[in-house]
Every structure is written in structure tokens, then in C-alpha cells.
Specification:
single chain; alpha+beta; Beta-lactamase Inhibitory Protein, Chain:B, domain 1; four-stranded antiparallel beta sheet; about 20% helix; about 25% strand
């Protein structure tokens, strides 16, 4: 029985990990050329999918809770990839409007992280939350607040994680409520 050296095993593990990372955002998929099977092979099974009246499909690929992205793949009626984009950004957040249904919000942003979904009984309000990387490369949270009875959007809001949770210390003895190290993310 052949044994792998530590160096060979480490190199193989690194290659496998890099391969897994490449599928995180659909790298290599080409709109107009890639087909649904390519998308599912590269990105895996979608968390949600919707079939439109014209035969096209919308597939949601959330990469949270620790990740900052949700990718939406639009597949045409012919089965070809029309577009693939991260929807957790200010442009897409601006599409969420008062009065929208929960399904309409899901089609814009994909599913929120279930652990961050909260119902506030006193306000009869349901809050959904997504983690994203803001335009200044700081981790942030976008919230959509729904009327608990009608399920329609009441309002939205966004805070950086340092605004929400306070400064986070990376080194013990530094930081705290009087200032500290901010965390940064990358697009």
C-alpha cells in the first residue's frame, strides 16, 4: 500500500480547497454559453429556485452566514445561463420597497440566514437579515422588516457590524467600547 508524504498530502489538500473556492462565485461560468447543468455542477444545488411563466428559472446561492454574498443565476427558457451576480449590495437593497411580499424580497435577495430571522411580538414584526460587505469593505447587515400579519415590507435598514455590535478587538487588551480594531472584508 502506497503512502503519501506529508508534503504531497498537503499539496493535494490545497488543490482540493482551491477547487472548492473556485465554485463559490461561479468562476468559469459564461452567460450565453454555460447551461443549467454547468451552473449546478460548479455551484451545487441552489437553496431556492423559481420557475417563471416563460420557462426561465431563477436560482439562489447564498454563501452565508459567514460569507458576504448571495449569487442569483438566471437561466433562460433554452436552459442557458443569462446572468450570474451577487445580489447583496446597495443596488439590490434599493429594489426592496415598502409593501413588497416576502416572496418578492426572496426573488431579489435570496433567503436570509434562518438564525437571524426574528419575530417581535410587541410590534407584530418579522425581521430578516443578510450579511454583506459594504462599499467601504466593512462587514454589515441589511435588514428587512415585515408586518407580521400581512407579511408585507414595512421598512429596511442597514448597519455595519461595528455599529451594531461595537468595536471588535482582534488583540486581547486592545479595543473595547472606547475604540478598537475594525474587521474588514473583501469583495
Amino acid at each position: 500500500m502506497a503512502c503519501l508524504s506529508t508534503r504531497t498530502a498537503a499539496a493535494l489538500a490545497a488543490i482540493l480547497l482551491l477547487g472548492a473556492c473556485a465554485s463559490y462565485n461561479g468562476r468559469g461560468l459564461q452567460p450565453g454559453q454555460s447551461v443549467l447543468a454547468d451552473v449546478e455542477q460548479v455551484m451545487g444545488a441552489p437553496a431556492m429556485r423559481w420557475r417563471e411563466a416563460d420557462g426561465s428559472e431563477l436560482l439562489a446561492y447564498p454563501r452565508g452566514p459567514a460569507g458576504y454574498h448571495t449569487y442569483m443565476a438566471r437561466i433562460g427558457p433554452d436552459g442557458r445561463l443569462l446572468s450570474l451576480e451577487n445580489v447583496l449590495d446597495t443596488r439590490h437593497f434599493a429594489l426592496v420597497r415598502e409593501g413588497m411580499s416576502q416572496d418578492q424580497v426572496l426573488r431579489v435577495l435570496g433567503p436570509p440566514y434562518p438564525g437571524w430571522t426574528v419575530y417581535f411580538k410587541a410590534r407584530d414584526e418579522l425581521a430578516w437579515e443578510w450579511r454583506y460587505c459594504d462599499d467601504w469593505n466593512e462587514p454589515a447587515r441589511f435588514n428587512v422588516f415585515f408586518d407580521g400579519t400581512s407579511g408585507k415590507v414595512r421598512s429596511t435598514g442597514s448597519l455595519t457590524e461595528s455599529q451594531r455590535f461595537g468595536p471588535i478587538s482582534i488583540l486581547s487588551g486592545f479595543g473595547g467600547s472606547d475604540g478598537g480594531w475594525r474587521q474588514w472584508c473583501s469583495h
